[in-house]
Automatic annotation (TrEMBL):
This is Ureidoacrylate peracid hydrolase. One of its GO terms (molecular function) is hydrolase activity. Gene3D superfamilies: Isochorismatase-like. It comes from the Bacteria. Keywords: Hydrolase.
Length: 209
């Protein structure tokens, strides 16, 4: 077991939005509930607060689509074809309550909107991270096996180290969530937020070796 100290870290919180996470959101209303949110939301909020206390940048990713005159998403691409039918008529529309971040979450330093699962696809996220001098990303949010994993994979391919905060992520399926966490350990690290954020401002990343 060895320890690697990153040059600079940032916390990236993925899609902690009303439509995914609030009981009145479009996904829960259609039977898709993120599990353990009673613990995931406060754990993620605590991670945000801990990072801000240590001057670690906090970035929220938010899925938000533009629509045509009939409310159909015009910039969601194949997501619309592959998603549940209800998303064609409602959910994650830019400027709506459902697209907003949960009220329980503290204010971030930055917000990056996206139209695909990955936070890097056609967004300013990479430029923002480079400008901040970040080389290590701490990931939290939903959905573990979709937007979180897509963002983690793209981070890896852009040579950012990442650590998924295991107590700060959730999904619709625990089976897929667990499989995703196992898969992401091929590309990066998975650790509880307390293992990282309970340390000094030079957060450490545990690395097998």
């Amino acid at each position: 077991m060895t320890t690697t100290v990153p040059g600079k870290a940032a916390l990236v919180v993925v899609d902690m939005q009303n439509d995914y996470c609030n009981a009145r959101g479009v996904y829960p209303r259609n039977g898709l509930h993120c599990f353990d949110m009673d613990s995931v939301v406060p754990a993620t909020a605590a991670a945000v607060t801990a990072c801000k206390t240590r001057a670690i940048p906090v970035i929220y990713l938010r899925m938000a689509w533009n629509t045509d005159a009939h409310g159909f998403p015009i910039d969601a691409g194949l997501i619309i074809e592959q998603s549940r039918p209800f998303i064609r008529s409602e959910g994650l529309r830019r400027g709506t309550w459902g697209a907003e971040v949960l009220a329980e979450m503290p204010s971030p330093d930055y917000v990056v909107e996206k139209t695909r699962y990955s936070g890097f696809h056609n967004t300013a996220l990479e430029a923002l991270l480079r400008g901040l001098g970040v080389d290590t990303i701490y990931l939290a949010g939903v959905i573990t096996n979709m937007c979180v994993e897509a963002t983690a994979r793209d981070a890896f391919h852009r040579d950012f180290r990442f650590v998924v905060l295991s107590d700060c992520v959730s999904g619709f399926s625990r089976k897929l969530h667990d499989a995703s966490l196992e898969t992401m350990q091929i590309f990066g690290r998975v650790a509880a937020s307390s293992d990282l954020l309970g340390r000094t401002s030079d957060l450490t990343m545990l690395q097998s070796g």
